[in-house]
Amino acid sequence: MPKSYKFLKEDLEAVFLNGYNIVGDGTPDALFPILSGRTELQHPYARQRYSKDIYLEPDLFIFHTAKQYGYQTAYYEDMPWIGSFQYRYNGFSRRPADHYLRSFLMEETSHGSKWWNGLHKRYCLGATPQYLFLLNLTRQFMDLNTKRFCFTFIADISHDDFNLISTADDDVVDFLDHIKQSGKLKDTLLIVMGDHGPRFSPMRSTYQGKMEERMAFMSIVLPERLKMERPDALESLKSNSKVLTTPFDIHTTILDAMGLNNLSSDFIVPNFKIRRGLSLLQKIPKTRSCDEAGILPHWCVCLNIKWYNVLKTDRMYQKAADSLSEYINNITDEKRSLCVKRKLTSIEWVTREDLKEKSSNHLRPNVYYQIMIVMSPGRAVYEGSMQYDTKLDKFVISDKAVSRISA
């Protein structure tokens, strides 16, 4: 979307967060922190696989916080058949925002049948492209003469075919231009973002693809009034564009811009001193680590360690692959009548952290490995991060540190 990017950069003077790092897999792990300042595990455990009767509590989300302080709120999201908080979850216990689109789109898409009715029916509402329908609703909401908070999440135009998103370029420019010409930016914080990069695609199997998934697009335009009242805010934001930032920071920043910084999360990762979520309107330490920011090693792009390839002749090369394969098969073991047992067909690479960089003692109990394997049936490609316990001679693996990177 070159026109939209140019408009953000030149006309709106947006600040792009070049060190923005996601904190987990897929959309929910991006949106839970942004919209609530919490991880999924800090919410009621509403995953469908564990319970059908536990729902997400709207009071824990920023829509509720904003409403408590006089804001009208809106949450617009397309693709209701795979909703961010419905696909693997039971949804909300009640409507999370004043203006909520889910019921309409569920009815309009006949509870997901639109997915199967062909492309010419899927992407439009009558004569209007669905993404433009959401943009138009957002534009109308922005015209309300009150304090307002809106989260518009458009996925369908890019979710399954990234090439389609270019068709929205001109309309996004028109929307951004309207926001500027209407004078809204005097008192509006504008964020244009993506939730994550491609999770599975041919490019995802490359090193660049691995970075792309983890470093989502994030741009911020500060309100003119805020820049006048807090002259250091823009300077701090620009400085923070070059350091490690996360979805947790976005939540804290939004509250700070609303004058509600006292309501931001005070959670501190155990054994560290600074908060997990920091405001981008204040300078963030350049020394900040992924651990401090609440990013698991599997998702951290800027691991402060050096890696080297494990040779095929090293016994750990095969042992690491076998351990990951066994772990993946164990996950589906209880459904073995439905899910065939997978077989390891190839090992793409195995890397190991360089202990010389971290310790003069080579007998440290845990060594960190990353690995990519291919399994059958089909070409099932997995990328995993694992700790090796040297005392027990075994790998420790978490489902939060395994990515399926093929369709």
Explain what you see.
It is a single chain. With 407 residues, this protein is of the alpha+beta class. The chain folds into 2 domains: 298 residues, Alkaline Phosphatase, subunit A (3-Layer(aba) Sandwich), CATH 3.40.720; 98 residues, Nuclear Transport Factor 2, Chain: A (Roll). Helix content is 31%, strand content 17%. It has 14 helices and 14 strands. Strands 9, 10, 11, 12, 13 and 14 form a 6-stranded antiparallel β-sheet that branches. Helix 1 runs parallel beside helix 8, helix 2 runs parallel beside helix 12 and helix 6 runs parallel beside helix 8.
Write the SSE topology.
Blueprint (H helix, E strand, L loop, with lengths): L1 H10 L3 E2 L9 H11 L25 H7 L3 E6 L21 E2 L1 H7 L10 H4 L1 E2 L2 E2 H13 L5 E6 L2 H4 L9 H13 L8 E4 L13 H8 L3 E4 L2 H6 L1 H10 L6 H11 L32 H4 L13 E3 L5 H17 L11 E11 L12 E11 L3 E10 L4 E3 L5 E3 L3
InterPro entries: Alkaline_phosphatase_core_sf (IPR017850), DUF229 (IPR004245)
Pfam family, one: DUF229
GO cellular component, one term: extracellular space
